[in-house]
Amino acid sequence: MSSTYGESLKLSIFGQSHGPAIGMTLDGIPAGLPVDTEKLQTFLNRRAPGQNDWSTPRKEEDRPEFLGGILDGYTCGAPIAAVIYNKNTRSVDYANLKDCPRPGHADYTAQIKYGGFQDAAGGGHFSGRLTAPLCIAGGLCKQWLEEMGIRIGAHIYMIAGWEDNKFNPLQPELDAIDPVFPIINAQLGDEMKKRINKARAQGDSVGGMIECAIIGLPAGLGEPMFGGVESKIAQIVYGIPAVKGVEFGAGLTFAYDLGSEMNDAYTVEDGQITAASNSAGGILGGITTGMPVIFRAIFKPTPSISTPQQSVSLSRMEEQELIVKGRHDPCIVPRAVPVVEAAAAIAIYDLILSNTQTTRRK
Amino acid sequence: MSSTYGESLKLSIFGQSHGPAIGMTLDGIPAGLPVDTEKLQTFLNRRAPGQNDWSTPRKEEDRPEFLGGILDGYTCGAPIAAVIYNKNTRSVDYANLKDCPRPGHADYTAQIKYGGFQDAAGGGHFSGRLTAPLCIAGGLCKQWLEEMGIRIGAHIYMIAGWEDNKFNPLQPELDAIDPVFPIINAQLGDEMKKRINKARAQGDSVGGMIECAIIGLPAGLGEPMFGGVESKIAQIVYGIPAVKGVEFGAGLTFAYDLGSEMNDAYTVEDGQITAASNSAGGILGGITTGMPVIFRAIFKPTPSISTPQQSVSLSRMEEQELIVKGRHDPCIVPRAVPVVEAAAAIAIYDLILSNTQTTRRK
Amino acid sequence: MSSTYGESLKLSIFGQSHGPAIGMTLDGIPAGLPVDTEKLQTFLNRRAPGQNDWSTPRKEEDRPEFLGGILDGYTCGAPIAAVIYNKNTRSVDYANLKDCPRPGHADYTAQIKYGGFQDAAGGGHFSGRLTAPLCIAGGLCKQWLEEMGIRIGAHIYMIAGWEDNKFNPLQPELDAIDPVFPIINAQLGDEMKKRINKARAQGDSVGGMIECAIIGLPAGLGEPMFGGVESKIAQIVYGIPAVKGVEFGAGLTFAYDLGSEMNDAYTVEDGQITAASNSAGGILGGITTGMPVIFRAIFKPTPSISTPQQSVSLSRMEEQELIVKGRHDPCIVPRAVPVVEAAAAIAIYDLILSNTQTTRRK
Amino acid sequence: MSSTYGESLKLSIFGQSHGPAIGMTLDGIPAGLPVDTEKLQTFLNRRAPGQNDWSTPRKEEDRPEFLGGILDGYTCGAPIAAVIYNKNTRSVDYANLKDCPRPGHADYTAQIKYGGFQDAAGGGHFSGRLTAPLCIAGGLCKQWLEEMGIRIGAHIYMIAGWEDNKFNPLQPELDAIDPVFPIINAQLGDEMKKRINKARAQGDSVGGMIECAIIGLPAGLGEPMFGGVESKIAQIVYGIPAVKGVEFGAGLTFAYDLGSEMNDAYTVEDGQITAASNSAGGILGGITTGMPVIFRAIFKPTPSISTPQQSVSLSRMEEQELIVKGRHDPCIVPRAVPVVEAAAAIAIYDLILSNTQTTRRK
Q1: Is A359 a domain residue?
Q2: D145 in any annotated domain
Q3: By residue range, what is the domain housing residue B34?
Q4: What is the per-residue pLDDT across B270-316, written as a single tens digit (0 to 9) for each?
Q5: Could you tell me if residue A248 is inside a domain?
Q6: Which ipTM did the prediction report?
Q7: How many CB atoms lie within 10 A of CB A179?
Q8: When comparing pLDDT for C87 and C100, which is higher?
Q9: What is the CATH number of the domain that holds C170?
Q10: Residues of chain A neighbouring D16 (CB-CB closer than 8 A)
Q11: Less packed terminus of chain B by CB within 10 Å, N or C?
């Protein structure tokens, strides 16, 4: 519930965008897992702001300080706790946002829910900045999954209606993803950037989709009904601000095509059962098939735009024009790519820890 | 986890398609809530099979027997338990399915997960039949929400690519939905039925989408991050067999349009804050805005089709042609409409019981 | 929460004493575990009423009907569901108890909590009868633990101040426990029975203590802080009606003796680390030491006594003499012995399923 | 599970005794609750070490730094996070303890569970120092309960067999407790201190009992079976290091006396239902009666004693004499008094947030 996720692991995320710090605790992790902090930092840097011209110029180092759970480079069995102190805060005055909520933001719903006691500065606990601690937890899980031969990678699939290639569902091209602007087909990136820059120039913003693949998963992972892989992934991915849709495998195509086209025929290859296609996105009945797990998340355009918008004054209960100050990402999608990977890694690692499948054979 | 859902309420669903019974327990419900069993039966009948020519001819009464939790027409505070005995079982021989898994079904993943100990008959615990106890729980929650002025309704939005109208996101037309074939625009139903009947005639199947609206919700419901309304609804909706995608509000459109087009401007109307549009689907930051909550679920085509398919023999580890016997729904979407409503009702009622919003004002 | 217990397994207990049925669902159990229903019945019979002269004459067969989760003698991975229909009900009129609560019972607290909507007959969901489904779940867990070499046994340690021997904490004498009247030192049983019979003759009741031992546990089981073995066992044992105290190992003696007397010195025996004493009751820091886990539960005297008691009329808000009709156990302790074993078995089996200890060595 | 507690609130405790910091996150708390940090510090100081001659001379300020969840003196709805940096660490060399576990400590069980990867310094995550963050969470809950008219107080009931008065179960004397050495009957304190000092002089330690009372609770709080007040309190109190027993109300006396003596007769007083006695300790059927809730916790003697003890070398697998260096509390009981209050406050506040009782009357 709330800012806590997980069955076997317990992730708890805390902090507000302009409060003293943000951070996370991650409980239930086995001892003896190696932690590569340099590799983690490289992962976190993919999400960090201010690195290029399509993201917000707010600069935060996002360098986690570990307060517990790690000793001499290995997990020690105690809860892992990490904190990132906020340094570059309060540069913009947010006082008026508390009275005049930004359309598309949580300003208004937080006001109603918390009765004015919420930390409104920079979106408070609802800020996209809270994805940094999510990436700490996810970056660690990703490392531990890699040790088990499980790889996770995501790419921008769409920005403002312009599509990258989809993953090959049988063999997702994780190694083909551009490390700077994460798409598969590099030729398509210029048009995407153009759309982002055009939106920025207009004081507007654009959304898009991110596609994520998990390869190397064993068959048989996941639990029936509400504990299925789709349920677990969707629950955490919807915890990423701006996500408004999640689909698995063939996704929307399922609503168009015939069963005979969508059922993945089984085959035997090198003495192993596999499938000739992967419309299922690696999941049947909520349980992994052993094929790559593939899903896509829809991101809405950043609601913070600099063009004038119609809002209301909560104190005066009358309409008021709002001009959002400060500079914001015109498109959150590029920086959200590692966040989606992090969310997937946490969900999958929790499923592995919780797995109750039998080892006996009848 | 697994077949258990909820924070404040605890739903547990049990049973296998061809086992002795299916049922559910629902714990954590306040005492003194009225239970209208006749109304519940009417709701369950919308899901029941064998009622018309576009669903499976397997006939089950789906008449729940309450074993606890209800006394003299009111909840008594003890866990609610209900059971439906399976009567019309074992008519088809499922022995061969255990060796030769149906493409698109959980047969293979269950075999791997449970090592051959699973109840394979009729899909066992993975059967769509398990949505009957989900509808018992959801039908009850729906009644209690109605007592609070909260209404839930769903309709077929798409079958095989053919679309019904979308809900008006400001005023979803719950009362316009056809009670027999649940669509908004009755004129579009014939084409949908035609596509279903054509698929049946070909021994094939089709999928689609269901759109659901929840109206009358207060603003401020839901918790931040992983406890948001989207996370809670998605988790349970993905527990419905065949669901492969869930989107909220404008959904896929978010990936195409500009922020200035998708942000819902606030207005003041009759002294109340409202919005001029509802792209957000009634949710910002995971918290309800007070506008209708709207979501859509993608359903894959029923995997059980009578045309020959390529599968494998697990014992012989070689490919084998499979012909699925028995008669099945060529399209599960019409019968799934109340199931989606039930899932939404359970998620929303749990959110209401768990709600921690302040009542003080600053 | 409520009538639900467990982390990796999810036990949900339902039913009221005089409702249609009582039962349980047990989710999260691996597939392929053998189920010996005859052995389970033998276990349940130890709890069943009406078998001898120191228990209530209400006769219930307590023969569970399994509705799901078991196939051909093995768990199938689906939730296990079992039900016992109530047959011998409503023989006593409970209407007046709703207005005039029995001292020492949950009658009054249920009235306040549920506002008069509770099922008051026979104590409803608060009845000791609800320990029957607890014994179904616990009896199954006990079988699965035995397969792993883990044995659980309990005995009456005290009745009305008269003590049986305590277990030898290094080698609890599970095989010495009398199967009919479960004590270790058979010579002490006559005095206990005398005290029970004297209480019955006086229309009164007596309480006592039950001591339970779990042997064969590996070292390293349990989680830190709130997930420790003591926390897990205490939580479920306090779920047994009438339990008012739980202590581990040397228990109360810890409050009297010196650290030098209570610390268990480590020794090496046959190349294995062990301890020369077991004051810790097999648990240090919430984690098992590999020595027998030993705990004791205090049971209060059955509150239902036939001597006149002072109560109140809730409708008239005035004092009223109450004479509880019907015949009741003058001492619940003998029948509670298998219930304590069941609770321990569920807690331990859940801990085993949840165990996150590392397998690597530094 | 593990270092996480709660249903509606989610407490997560992290840190190791000699790691960088200890701390906690507390999620699920309503917004708008006042936070008096000075009052909290006064509460924390009651637990802090080094304040008098019966506690360890390790000095830690235990001054929490809040990283989130509090704004301008009120909770803001976001998770509350607080951290205490460890300053006075590594003064003793703990390297040899990893090979030679202290009897009565978690050294050995942690070694087995975490395979040598644990943080052994100062007991790591198993240290009594982790009760400081428990007191941050509990101190806050205690404040919020006081706002509702609910008071919690505890006193030393026993040290080394020497007893203080028990609380009057009808009117616990919270205001009579000595603020420095927390007992009710001040005349009994000298003998207790004498026993502590004698143990210290001998290089030994003593245990005892703490009694806690909660007054002002409404009737009807708590959930049936495993969600009862006893289960909830016991689970968290057993999370305090050194606790080996918990009993409610008359406790052990229940195992001696007759039902007619232990049942609390109901009376009507000033138009209110109350009871003439409170053997039940304010709880019947797991639900509060409205009378004071009273419980006692047994604490074992501090295992760290300076007299030579027999242990083993884990690397050489042979017996070895151990002399524990450093100075330790000869009796943890006085400093544990606020810890017990904190644990009770968290359990009760969680029960209040989770409470599902009806408000309707039949």
Answers
A1: no
A2: yes
A3: 4-354
A4: 888 999 999 999 999 999 999 999 999 999 999 999 999 999 999 99
A5: yes
A6: 0.96
A7: 7
A8: C100
A9: 3.60.150.10
A10: 68, 71, 76, 78
A11: C
